[in-house]
Amino acid sequence: MPITDPIEVTHDGAIATVVLNRPEKLNALTKGMWHDLGQAIGALSADDDLRCIILRGAGEKAFSPGNDIGEFASERANKLQAIAYGHVMHATLQALADCRHPIVAQIHGICVGGGLEIAALCDLRICGESSRFGAPIKNLGLTMAYAEMAPLIRLVGAAAALEILLEGRVFDAAEAQAKRLVTRVVPDGEVATEARASAERIAEGAPLVARWHKKFARRLADPRPLTAAEAAEGFDCFDTEDFRIGYAAFLAKKKPVFVGR
What we know:
Elements: E1 7-12, E2 15-20, H1 31-45, E3 52-57, E4 62-64, H2 72-75, H3 79-98, E5 103-107, E6 110-112, H4 114-120, E7 124-128, E8 132-134, H5 146-156, H6 158-167, E9 170-172, H7 173-178, E10 184-186, H8 191-204, H9 207-220, H10 228-233, H11 241-251
Parallel strand pairs: 2-3, 3-5, 4-6, 5-7, 6-8, 7-10
Antiparallel strand pairs: 1-2, 8-9
Helix pairs in contact: 1-3, 4-5, 5-6
C-alpha cells in the first residue's frame, strides 16, 4: 500500500489545495497533522505566486471530526502533555489566521471539534446540505482553550459559541448557516465544484487587494484606533500596476489579467 502524506498539498495554477488526508479515520487530527498543517499553511502564505487556498478533508464523509481520541493516552493524558499539544495546535491556528491568501473551506460531511476550529479560520466555508457541525467536547470533559474559542466567537458571537459548547449538539447545515458558521450551503454533489468556482473567482481578482482586504478585516477586529499610517495604507492600491491594469480593462470593457504588482 503506498504511503500517503497526512497533509497533502497540490497546486493548480494560482490555487493550492490542502487536504487533511486520513480518510480511514474520517480525517481525525493527530498532533503530527496539526504540526504539518501549520507548516504547509505557513509555506503557502509566503508564496507570492499563490492567490487562493482550498482546504478540505479527504473523501466526502468528513472535513474532520476533530482530534483523534485514540492519541489522548499518549499525547494528552495530563495537563503538561495537553499544554505541549496545545502549543502545536495553537501555532497552526495562528498560521491559518495569519495566512495572507484567502482560504476556502470545502466541507463534506462531518465538521466538528478541531475540524470546526480549522474551518472557522477560513475566509469562506462552503458545505453540503448533509454536513454536520458542532463541538460536543463537554461529553469528553474537555474545554475549548482561549486560542481555539476566540475565532469561533469572532465568527458567530459569544452567545452562539456558548450554545454550541454548553449544549454540545451536532446540528445540520441549515442551522450552521443561520449561526454564520458557513458561508454557503449547496447540494452535496456540488460542494467541490462550488468551492473550486469560488477559489477561481478569488484568484481572478487582484491578489494584492485580496491580501489587503484580509489584513484590513483582521485589523478592524482590534478595537484600537487606526494609526495615520494604517489609514493611509487603504490607498496604497492606487500606486499598484494592478490598479492601472484593472482601470484600463474596465474602460476597454475587457477582463483584467492581474500581475500582483
